[in-house]
Each structure stands twice: as structure tokens, then as C-alpha cells.
């Protein structure tokens, strides 16, 4: 086995040696004829462009172009040594031997490299020497040329520090109303007179005094939305005007005649105009669904006409309202208004009592009961369900002994108690306002 390995190594070495011998002894392939015509092959192995080619390109061999070293300047200028292993730009015997031909010193010779480029004369040759003057020479300076002297920095234009706005009183004192021509570019018959501003406003179509142009435009927009079936958008457009002060009785009547039916259809009908329908799963109850959307379960039962809120069949689609609702109580106008977010959600007539008298402020519904014992001023209790109990069938505790409650009268609120609504509407208020709803009381 050892003999076979030794033989293999010997054969490999002989193969390598034979390949090297063949590459060294095989002559190079001859150059094409068109290349040999323009090259002069020297005995030393160097090459340069022929004289005919140099003349054809416009170069004079006896006078090299600027930046090219000749034999004389090559002997005078010694380049800085390059770090190893870069070759020296010139042979070591060049400076001490006979000058080389000019074509050999040309940096553009065939076969040269970046190491053969001559160094810049400015870093090696004395600027005062005659050789440097003949190679690089600056143009002469014309002593008669005009000079440019830069001005100081603060000579640029700037706003003076004492700038002041014109005085209106001084301008009015110098105003001459007799000068100039009357303005005739407006509506027909318009002139610059004392009554011109009022005349111009009325002529350009502005509404007369007392007319709310914004409300009129809102009516038009809401009516157009209603025709297109955009009921929620119409309700939102008009809801912002509900609490606007200084509305005339006619304007308020027009506003309420649109808000009430829109709120009834958008919020309390079974149409899915607020949220996508909710499909009941096998593990859900109506109370859990109502808690998820922050509304009383009674509201969802009333809207969806659910007879038994405890058992709702899986797969039932429910109309969803996302709460909570809030209420605003107007003590002066004796009205309670409901809102769902920014949407108007209905109004109820109220009675304002003094046991205790409600105070303006913002409250939160803390507790809800369908029946509550009433205590008169002397502390005598009136049981729930009694005709003398002013709370009726609904009592919402707002804290501080202030409450919203029903009435023993089914169609009229009572003046007893605190804040009362008619008995027929007590169930609606109870089913809309949830524990945690905000109630704002104002005069």
C-alpha cells in the first residue's frame, strides 16, 4: 500500500513539472497583422507607439505635452519612494545612465501602470526653477483690471427698528370722502351711501334679522337625507340644533317635528340603523347582551318585542343600541331630554317638586327601583303602590336625596317629590337610563 501511494505522488509531481516546462518553452502566439503595423517591438521586450501613429495623433515626439517627463527632467526630478511591494516608477540605473528615449518616458506607453505615472511637479520641483516655469505657468496678472471690494455685512437692506403701524385716527383725519368715484361693480343701483352696507347685505341674499340660516340649511339637508333613506345622518344633522338658544317658537316646532319621528325610527324601531344585528348564541342571555352594549335589558326586550327576556332562542337577530344613554333636565322649561351619544333620543314633560328641590349640576344614576317607599316631610312612610306615593312605579336615585321618579297619575307628572314624569312614561325612562347614566340638571 505504501508503494502505491509513493508512486501516485511521483506521477503527480512529474505531471506538474511537465506542465510548467511546456508553458515556459511554448512561444507566444503571433500578434495580428493590424496590431504589428502600429507597434514597434524592441529587443529588450518594451514597446511604444510608432512615430507615424504619434504624428497622426498630433503629438510631437521632440516636445512632449505638459505633464510628461522628458529625459532631462526625469534625471532632475526624483519621485518620492513608494511603499513596498509597489515597483519603482523608474529603473534604479536611470538617473546615472544614459537618458532613455522620449517615447519610453511617456506615461501613456503601452504596458505601463499607475506606478509609472510621474509625480506632480508642484510637490517636487521648486516653483522658482526654470524647468517648472516652462511646464506650468500661470497667466500674467493685468494690473489695470478693476478690483472688487466686498462691503460690510450690515450693508444689506433690513427693516428699520422704528417701524410702526399706521394710526387709524390719523388716517381718518386725512380722509377726503369727496375724492374718488362711486362703486358700481355690485348689484344694480348700489352706490356708496350711508345705507349701502345694509342694502348690500339684503341684496346679496342674506337672511333677514331673526332668521337662522344654518338651521334652514340643516332642514334642507336633513330632508334630502330622509328622501335617500339616510335616517341616522338626518337625525345627527338636526340633533346639534336642539339645545341652540334663541330659537323662535316656529323654528323649534319645525325642528321637533323632524327630530321626534327620526329618533323613533332610528333608535326605537326594529330596523338596524345604528349597529349590525346581533345573532344570539346558545350560551348568551338577553341580560348578558345588554350588559355588553351598556343598556338595560328591558330596552332590548321592548325594541325587539321579546316576551320572555330570560329565554331567547339561539340564532335570534336582535336590534342593538350601544349605550349608555344620558339625560338633560331643564327645570325652567320642565322637560327631560334623552340623548344617545350626540343623537337626540326623545323628550318627556316633567314636574318639578320641592321634596327635595333639585339643584343644577351633573349627576349619575346610582340605583334603580320599580317601587320605593316615600317619606313625607314629617317622616311618615308612604308604602310603594299607594295612590299617595308620588314615586309611582319608577325611582332613579341620583344621590343627595335627588331622584327622578314616576307619578301616580298615568298621563300627568306630579308636583310632589323631586323630578317626576307621567306614569305611562315611567317604564320607558326606566328601560332607557341605566345605572351609571349621566344626568345634567340646569335651569
Automatic annotation (TrEMBL):
Protein name in UniProt: L,D-transpeptidase catalytic domain
Domain L,D-TPase catalytic per the UniProt entry, residue ranges: 325-442
Residues annotated as the enzyme's active site: 405, 418
Record-linked Pfam families: LysM (PF01476), YkuD (PF03734)
Presence of keyword Ribosomal protein: no
InterPro entries registered for this protein in UniProt: LD-transpeptidase, LD_TPept_cat_dom, LysM, LysM_dom_sf, Transpep_catalytic_dom
Superkingdom classification of source: Bacteria
Xref: Gene3D superfamilies: L,D-transpeptidase catalytic domain-like, LysM domain
Region (Disordered): 78-106, 139-162
Compositional bias annotation for Pro residues: 80-90
Recorded metabolic or biological pathway in which this protein acts: Cell wall biogenesis; peptidoglycan biosynthesis
CDD domains: LysM (cd00118), YkuD_like (cd16913)
Statement: the UniProt record of this protein carries the keyword Iron: no
GO molecular function, one term: glycosyltransferase activity
CC per GO annotation: extracellular region
Amino acid at each position: 500500500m505504501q508503494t502505491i501511494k509513493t508512486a501516485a505522488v511521483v506521477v503527480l509531481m512529474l505531471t506538474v513539472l511537465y506542465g510548467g516546462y511546456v508553458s515556459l518553452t511554448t512561444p507566444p502566439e503571433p500578434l495580428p497583422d493590424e496590431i504589428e503595423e502600429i507597434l514597434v517591438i524592441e529587443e529588450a521586450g518594451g514597446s511604444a507607439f510608432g512615430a507615424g501613429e504619434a504624428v497622426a495623433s498630433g503629438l510631437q515626439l521632440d516636445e512632449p505635452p505638459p505633464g510628461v517627463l522628458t529625459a532631462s527632467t526625469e534625471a532632475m526630478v526624483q519621485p518620492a519612494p513608494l511603499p513596498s511591494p509597489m515597483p519603482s516608477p523608474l529603473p534604479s540605473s536611470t538617473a546615472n545612465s544614459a537618458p532613455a528615449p522620449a517615447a519610453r518616458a511617456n506615461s501613456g506607453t503601452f504596458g505601463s501602470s499607475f506606478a509609472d505615472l510621474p509625480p506632480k511637479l508642484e510637490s517636487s520641483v521648486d516653483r522658482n526653477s526654470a524647468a517648472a516655469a516652462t511646464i506650468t505657468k500661470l497667466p500674467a496678472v493685468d494690473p489695470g483690471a478693476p478690483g472688487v471690494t466686498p462691503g460690510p455685512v450690515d450693508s444689506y437692506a433690513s427693516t428699520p427698528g422704528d417701524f410702526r403701524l399706521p394710526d387709524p385716527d390719523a388716517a381718518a383725519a386725512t380722509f377726503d370722502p369727496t375724492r374718488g368715484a362711486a362703486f358700481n361693480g355690485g348689484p344694480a343701483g348700489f352706490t356708496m351711501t350711508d345705507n349701502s352696507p345694509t342694502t348690500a347685505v339684503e341684496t346679496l341674499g342674506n337672511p333677514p334679522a331673526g332668521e337662522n340660516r344654518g338651521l334652514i340649511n340643516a332642514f334642507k339637508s336633513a330632508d334630502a337625507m330622509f328622501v335617500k333613506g339616510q335616517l341616522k345622518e338626518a337625525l345627527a344633522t338636526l340633533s346639534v340644533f336642539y339645545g341652540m338658544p334663541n330659537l323662535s317658537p316656529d323654528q323649534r316646532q319645525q325642528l321637533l317635528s323632524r327630530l321626534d319621528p327620526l329618533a323613533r325610527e332610528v333608535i326605537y324601531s326594529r330596523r338596524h340603523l345604528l349597529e349590525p344585528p346581533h345573532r344570539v348564541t346558545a350560551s348568551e342571555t338577553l341580560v348578558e347582551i345588554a350588559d355588553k352594549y351598556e343598556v338595560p335589558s328591558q330596552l332590548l326586550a321592548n325594541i325587539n318585542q321579546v316576551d320572555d327576556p330570560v329565554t331567547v332562542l339561539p340564532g335570534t337577530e336582535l336590534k342593538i343600541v350601544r349605550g349608555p344613554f344620558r339625560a338633560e333636565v331643564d327645570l325652567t322649561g320642565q322637560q327631560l331630554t334623552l340623548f344617545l351619544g350626540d343623537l337626540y333620543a326623545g323628550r318627556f314633560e316633567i314636574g318639578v317638586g320641592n321634596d327635595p328641590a333639585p339643584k343644577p349640576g351633573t349627576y349619575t344614576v346610582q340605583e334603580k327601583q320599580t317601587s320605593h317607599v316615600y317619606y313625607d316631610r314629617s317622616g311618615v312612610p308612604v308604602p310603594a303602590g299607594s295612590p299617595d306615593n308620588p314615586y309611582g312605579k319608577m325611582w332613579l336615585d341620583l344621590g343627595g336625596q335627588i331622584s327622578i321618579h314616576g307619578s301616580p297619575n298615568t298621563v300627568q307628572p306630579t308636583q310632589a317629590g323631586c323630578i317626576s314624569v307621567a306614569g305611562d312614561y315611567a317604564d320607558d325612562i326606566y328601560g332607557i337610563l341605566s345605572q351609571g347614566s349621566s344626568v345634567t340638571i340646569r335651569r
